[in-house]
TrEMBL record:
Membrane-spanning segments: 12-35, 47-65, 71-92
Organism this protein belongs to: Caldimonas aquatica
Family annotation (NCBIfam families): CPA3_mnhG_phaG, PRK12674.1-5
Keyword Transmembrane helix applies: yes
Cross-referenced InterPro entries: PhaG_MnhG_YufB (IPR005133)
Keywords: Membrane, Transmembrane, Transmembrane helix
UniProt key word Transmembrane helix: yes
The name this protein goes by in its record: Na+/H+ antiporter subunit G
Length: 113
């Protein structure tokens, strides 16, 4: 299947897969290394979303190189980029409501409890 692709398409697809994998790895390392919930919330919403986006772009390029449109991957990308920030915002609001402790100090302009 991939032998029929042009060499430039194979290189571009491999590069997007590597970039997506690196972003996913950074997101996974962030989940392990960050010390509290609020910091850990940042890793999957930013880095892992970009990692999945790289893999989906590689899949779209495979379809385009074979003469197909790749509508499924485009819809998955749009859905992911819309739902990831919304779900992160809802998780952060729930954590604030439950008073989940944070290790970072509050900003200087915020009132201290």
């Amino acid at each position: 299947m991939f032998e029929s692709l042009q060499p430039w398409a194979q290189v571009a697809i491999a590069a997007m897969l590597v970039v997506g994998g690196v972003f996913a790895l950074v997101g996974a390392i962030g989940m392990l290394r960050f010390p509290d919930f609020y910091m850990r919330l940042h890793a999957p919403t930013k880095a892992t979303t970009l990692g999945v986006g790289g893999v989906l772009m590689a899949s779209m390029l495979v379809n385009w190189a074979q003469g197909e449109f790749g509508l499924h991957e485009l819809l998955i990308t749009l859905f992911l980029f819309v739902t990831a920030p919304v779900s992160a915002n809802l998780l952060a609001q729930a954590a604030l409501h439950l008073r989940v402790p944070a290790k970072a100090p509050p900003p200087a302009d915020q009132p201290r409890p």
